[in-house]
Amino acid sequence: MYNTLLLPDLRLMIIENDEKAMQEFCEVLFPAVTAELLAELPPTDALTVLSQCPLERRAEIFGYLPLGFQITLVENMDRKPLSRLVQEMAADDRVDLLEKLDPNQVETLLPLIAQAERADIRRLLSYPEGSAGSIMTTEYASLPKSITVGEAFDRLRLQAPDRETIYYIYIIDDRRQLLGFISMRKLILAKPQQLLSEIMRNDVIYVKVDDDDEFVANELNRYGFIAIPVVDTENRLVGIVTHDDAADVLREEAEEDQHRLAAVEPLDDSYFSTSVFVLAQKRGFWLLFLLGASVFTAWVLQFFQGSGERGWIIMFLPLVMASGGNAGSQSAALVISALARDHARLRVIGTFHILTRELSLSLILGGTVASISFFCAWLLTGAIAPAIVVSTTVLLVVVMAAVTGAAMPIVIQSFDADPAYMSTPLIAAIVDVIGVIIYFNVAYLVFGNLPA
Amino acid sequence: MYNTLLLPDLRLMIIENDEKAMQEFCEVLFPAVTAELLAELPPTDALTVLSQCPLERRAEIFGYLPLGFQITLVENMDRKPLSRLVQEMAADDRVDLLEKLDPNQVETLLPLIAQAERADIRRLLSYPEGSAGSIMTTEYASLPKSITVGEAFDRLRLQAPDRETIYYIYIIDDRRQLLGFISMRKLILAKPQQLLSEIMRNDVIYVKVDDDDEFVANELNRYGFIAIPVVDTENRLVGIVTHDDAADVLREEAEEDQHRLAAVEPLDDSYFSTSVFVLAQKRGFWLLFLLGASVFTAWVLQFFQGSGERGWIIMFLPLVMASGGNAGSQSAALVISALARDHARLRVIGTFHILTRELSLSLILGGTVASISFFCAWLLTGAIAPAIVVSTTVLLVVVMAAVTGAAMPIVIQSFDADPAYMSTPLIAAIVDVIGVIIYFNVAYLVFGNLPA
């Protein structure tokens, strides 16, 4: 909602190269808001603005940028300023970034980073994607059990500036074994001379470093925690996962599930900022796989056919209808989850842009599926004419279905209803009837009449 | 994971009526864990255990029970102890409960509750479902701007015990206008003699009381906040929404979307604990609606038919296949989102139980859809025999599809893969080919041979 108001101002600052205004822009707004605005700019402009920020603030804003945008910026940065930025970033954010960079690039960066940070990065990088280790941060607050509450506050004041949270304090021994847990609330309510060992909770709920990240996020939510500690195989505290990172994991998982349910490979980026080419790959694989299944159905159907001359019409009916249903449900699922994540973006990008994108995308997908259908139909019927009818129909049906599937949720949303009502089966039902009409009309056009 | 280990002990305590053990059980475990175990017991047993807990702990545990279970317990409680429980519950939890109770019952309860709490309940109950007001809590920490940091700590110590969070402190004036915000971290780092007005942030990010709850949850996540303040139309602070409640909202929305995408009305409860009858309603509506669409497709198809005697075979092919695809994708979506939410429950309940449940459910759904198909086919063809073939096939296909749709995600999960790979289009593809075989075999059985 900020975007539409502040973007013109920001663009003006860049054109006029108004360094003071850019600096103010970085410092006044919440880092999350600044990041959202920068992500709307061309990468070089975003870098110009960021270079006006004090380093600490720059690292914070950078951490809020979408990962794909971070990578583009990194590719435009020199090694020296980049290493300073990486060193300053939050431990979990920078590992997310480094994981996506070329390993060689990471190796040239690391020597420029301070020893302690470097060791931390190497350790975090070693945890496999999708594990607790890969989403945790090492910036947690910890204290020994033998000190008093008063001393604890003094130490926490030192830890506070660079810890992800100081509201949950973990009690560890010399070997970093996790012994207990104290919330800031309890610490505030305790008497200054009490020992931490007297007030700490012994039965800490924790997860293991190789636990699945979705499990970790669910555990955190189950207890309503702000953070959950992560221990290694020897029960040593190695990190914490905070509630905001858990929320990200669950949102990504939900979105992945939604996409998979409609036979789309999960996207790395938001639907709005994914290119047509990448979308074609993520959807094409499944469309072709499902086409295979439809061809099999057609093959089975031929055994139930009489030897009627135009028996192929019925053979390919399921294939034609399934092609439409599949392409339409992919579009619908992508648009629906994109709207759920950020429906304000729709206004910035525009419905027309999305529909033209779906149109070009569906021409690629439809063209591919149609060509393969052509050969399958030719092979199964041994004649060219049915192959022409089937493939032309498939192309038209896929294009019609993809555009309908993308448009319907937007229409529903404009009536303030939940776009998810445009379900896969409903899209299939709408597309079925239009598909049938297209199929038989194409057959009419090619043959001039229809089979008896 | 606790359940399987502790449940037998708990059952023994109840049989032996071991009051001391039950009391310990309530106090030693985390309230969330105690609640999960109690939810596995018959309601009267759960009440027996709860009655051994101190009131405050009892209210806390109660708040973690699933809403449906809370309602069952309430129906078994006397007015007096119930009013004490409601008075002690967290402001947001109790309103969630009271919203689901019979308004008359709520009216008999309220007079037993202290004046201040009663006013709070009435105010929270007045916000419409799905609004920020309906998920917020009124138990937030607030301070005036004119006091020092040292005084702030003294006041927070008084507020701490019954506030949902004291880590975010909102600065308000006499008329409760929201002026600023201070995090506990900042407060700890400040000097005791500093004024709050000097260290507070003026540009508070807030939401309005009638904002959509999903929007509120997304705003909170966008900034990674622990809580977000809620103001009324006159900018007065009326509550806060905390990160754990925001996570619940987003999880429910994601689950609702997943269900809607597969044409299932969203469930109020978990799939595992929803009755066959309720499931039949939530799914039946959409199946019948989609059947209507298929009948329309059949009607359109007849215009493309020659006057061939058995032209109806092709007319009803899309209907038969869509019935299977729809029922199968409903089952798959329900099982997949249930597994994502809590796949440990599967082991407790057992795959066999789920499949027999789907079987009985699909007999109800399939029976209904088949009967209606019978009349539609009769009407459209004017003959009984096609109606018999179509309706018998629909029954068999729906049953086959529902059981396959429920079983496949469980099979995939057992190979440690993401069950969401069992997508709607994939289910439809599998069901298509089996459906076609069933259809023509039924036709063979009825007619002894097939149409040319």
Automatic annotation (TrEMBL), chains A, B:
Q: Which Pfam families match?
A: CBS, MgtE, MgtE_N
* This protein's UniProt keywords: CBS domain, Cell membrane, Magnesium, Membrane, Metal-binding, Transmembrane, Transmembrane helix, Transport
Q: Which InterPro entries match?
A: CBS_dom, CBS_dom_sf, Mg_transptr_MgtE_intracell_dom, MgtE_N_sf, MgtE_transporter, SLC41_membr_dom, SLC41_membr_dom_sf
What range(s) does the CBS domain occupy? Answer: 136-198, 200-256
Subcellular location per the Swiss-Prot or TrEMBL entry? Cell membrane; Membrane
Please, which domain of life does this record's source organism belong to? Bacteria
- Locate the transmembrane regions by residue number: 285-305, 311-340, 361-381, 387-412, 424-447
Q: Fetch the CDD domains from UniProt.
A: CBS_pair_Mg_transporter
UniProt-listed SUPFAM superfamilies: CBS-domain pair (SSF54631), MgtE membrane domain-like (SSF161093), MgtE N-terminal domain-like (SSF158791)
The main place the protein resides is membrane
Q: Provide the GO MF annotations for this entry.
A: magnesium ion transmembrane transporter activity; metal ion binding
Iron-sulfur recorded as keyword: no
Establish whether keyword Transport is in the entry. Answer: yes
Q: Which GO terms describe its cellular component?
A: plasma membrane
For membrane topology, the record states: Multi-pass membrane protein
Assembly and partners are described as: Homodimer.
Q: What does this protein do?
A: Acts as a magnesium transporter.
Spell out the PANTHER family in the cross-references: MAGNESIUM TRANSPORTER MGTE
Q: Which family does it belong to?
A: Belongs to the SLC41A transporter family.
**Name of the protein in question:** Magnesium transporter MgtE
Instruction: Supply the source organism for this entry.
Output: Rubinisphaera italica
Taxonomically, what lineage is the organism?
Bacteria, Pseudomonadati, Planctomycetota, Planctomycetia, Planctomycetales
